[in-house]
Design goal:
eight-stranded mixed beta sheet, Rossmann fold, 2 domains
């Protein structure tokens, strides 16, 4: 992948950019194998080297007359990255119009060193179908009426804008967004259809960064689950239901696989329930902490799917799985925490595993491991 930003030392986020892609994949596979020794490893699932990233997290800087969308340099000045090759083509095509919209709606870029201004970030997500979610992260609600007034003009230029909202982050701190979300469009879910399953992403929701690789990840997990033929399955840390819905069976008369997704966010649970209804799948979802749900249950299911944050599942859930689970499908974005969790569950043996390269040009990747009780 060629990148002028990297060559000019304007952005070095892609730390592995100078390495050939096969070398990157080999390094990731080696790190994953060290985390789950003893498994039979399938070949890594490779990504496109560019144009794969379905979400742009752009810091807005510069001036109202010349806004920049990208990152900040060491002195807090904006570096414009609108042509970043990682982003999907739809995002790249939209970013120029969104920069023009900053001027049209008079959204003064936030000056980090001076701590003044209004617009802090622009967050753009593209669905596999090419629809866009655009979110403006503001210091206050002062500019919201102007956003509402001029949004139709943006949607005339970028017809793909389906979901739009304003996020309010009044504090001066190094976070991406605040807790308050103000809808600007009637629809507040972006349809991220993968493998024929309509997953629904809301503002502030989590979704895998690479849609094509996420589809392959869910499909592989569903294949392993189908081979086990469980009657009961939990998807812990289910988010909007990716694993649960891909492992569920169609609704209808007669016995069906009992699939339960567990997620702390009520909004994510509501989105997963809506997806299940639309797809006609027999899955139900619970808004609870994953560890509390497991520890409070009388019986373990046939299969447990876990897809935790980078810190891993933690000692309490690991101890419960170690003593109760028959099969576990573990999806990890951090080989180090994966290794620690697997070491804490010696009665669960890694059987099969595979690397899914969500993030080319970096050291980040996803690992899927099938565990079975010894």
């Amino acid at each position: 992948m060629e990148c002028g930003y990297y060559d000019r030392a304007e952005c070095r986020s892609c730390r592995w950019l100078t390495e050939a892609y096969p070398v990157q994949l080999a390094r990731k596979a080696e790190a994953a194998r060290a985390a789950a020794p003893g498994a039979t490893w399938l070949d890594p699932v490779a990504s496109r080297e560019e144009g794969f990233r379905n979400k742009a997290k752009m810091v807005v800087a510069g001036t109202l007359e010349r806004p920049s969308l990208g990152i900040l340099d060491a002195r807090g000045r904006g570096v414009d990255l609108r042509e970043c090759g990682l982003h999907t083509p739809g995002i790249r095509a939209a970013l120029g119009h969104i920069a023009d919209f900053v001027q049209l709606a008079r959204l003064t870029p936030y000056d980090v060193p001076a701590r003044r201004g209004e617009l802090k970030h622009v967050l753009v997500t593209e669905s596999p179908a090419g629809e866009l979610m655009v979110r403006w992260v503001l210091r206050s609600t002062e500019a919201v009426p102007r956003l509402r007034k001029h949004l139709p003009a943006l949607r005339e230029r970028v017809e793909a804008v389906t979901v739009a909202s304003a996020n309010i982050l009044p504090e001066h701190k190094a976070v991406l967004e605040g807790g308050t979300e103000i809808p600007l469009t009637a629809e507040q879910h972006l349809r991220m259809e993968l493998g024929g399953i309509p997953l629904l992403l809301r503002p502030q929701g989590f979704f895998q960064t690479n849609s094509e690789i996420a589809a392959a990840l869910y499909a592989r997990a569903a294949q392993w689950v189908d081979e086990l033929a469980p009657r009961t399955l939990w998807d812990l840390y289910c988010g909007v239901g990716g694993f649960a819905l891909h492992c569920a069976e169609p609704s209808g008369p007669g016995p069906r696989r009992d699939v339960v997704g567990v997620e702390t966010s009520p909004e994510a649970v509501a989105a997963a329930e809506r997806s299940a209804r639309e797809a006609g799948l027999a899955a139900r979802f619970v808004a609870r902490d994953a560890t509390a749900f497991a520890l409070g249950s009388e019986a373990a299911p046939d299969v447990v799917v876990v897809n935790p944050p980078r810190r891993g599942i933690g000692p309490e859930l690991a101890a419960w799985l170690e003593s109760r689970a028959h099969h576990v499908v573990y999806s990890s974005c951090n080989a180090r925490s994966l290794a620690g969790d697997l070491a804490a569950m010696p009665s669960l043996r890694p059987v099969r595993a595979q690397v899914f390269d969500m993030f080319p040009q970096t050291d980040h990747f996803e690992t899927l491991v099938l565990l079975e009780r010894v």
